Amino acid sequence: MNPKLSLAIGILCISFSPIFVKLAGTSPLGAAFYRVFIAWLCLIPYCIIKNKLRVNRKQLIIAVIAGVVFAADVAVWNMSLLKISATVSTLIANLAPVWVGLMSFLLFRKLSGRLFWIGTCVAILGMVILVGYQHILHLEFNAGILLALLASLFYAGYIMITKNIMAGIDVFTFMFYSMLGAAAFLFIISLFMSINIVNFPLRVWLCFIGMGLLCQLAGWLTINYSLRYLESTKVSIALLSQTVFAGLLAVFLLNEKLEVNEIIGSVIVLAGIAITFLKVSPRLFPKESI
After folding, report:
1. Helix axes 171-192, 57-81, angle to 10 degrees
2. CA–CA separation, 203 and 208 (whole Å)
3. What is the pLDDT of residues 237-255, one digit of tens each?
4. Rg (CA), the chain
5. What is the pTM of this model?
6. At what angle do helices 143-166 and 57-81 cross, to 10 degrees?
7. Cα–Cα distance for residue pair 52/63, rounded to 1 Å
8. Checking phi first, is residue 113 left (phi over 0); if not, alpha (psi -120 to 50) or beta?
9. I need a surface site. Which of 32, 43, 107, 129 has the fewest CB within 10 A?
10. What span, in angstroms and rounded, lies between the C-alpha atoms of 1 and 276?
11. Residue 114: is it exposed, middle or buried by C-beta count within 10 angstroms (0-12/13-18/19+)?
12. Do residues 162 and 16 lie in contact, with contact meaning Cβ atoms separated by under 8 Å?
């Protein structure tokens, strides 16, 4: 599959995540656990039949660490969704592109390029318009905002870890061990905090299955595949479009209405993403830098 098409499909799939979380309306840790656990169960038969379980020690450790970081991201973001509005939480949690760009420069001295930062600024401007600047100016520094900010750091860390390992490992193999690590981590945390992860009504179980199959399995298989061929900075900025798709899905599935500022903001976000995928012209930027 074309990496860009794979990324687009993955973003559309994970955009259903806040919809399922809102519909389930249950423990954020329980929702995070079943999201990765159900997807992992579905991978077992395929990985065994196709002999996808072979991995060296270094790859195994990195995959498990990536899984734990991803689990922390999902769990913390789900907690944030229950404390502040979904739109604001998603906005803050999707600051990952900024952290990825900074991490790439600070850790690897990798220059992201002017177009990346221009596109990032345009996309963030679009997200500010989408949410409404007046809401951002009056936000209180509460627990929900701190959790969403922490989720964005975990999100960026996962993208960085995944990018560095995907070039040398099969996508299914990586997903198998990373989701195993994520599920084990969330299960232990749930037991430690005495959180119910068993007694749920049918409606909640259906939401869990949707998150596991669509958001986690299909979504992150296609996104991780794209990370083998696309720059992590570009993937992270493209993931900003999750906010746009989630808003559109909420209109049809949750009967929410889109305001004019949300429509304009969504268009600007997509424009910013498009800028980051443009190829720079030497005439415009003779010496490409950050």
Report:
1. 50
2. 9
3. 777 777 778 777 877 777 7
4. 19
5. 0.75
6. 160
7. 14
8. left
9. 107
10. 21
11. middle
12. no
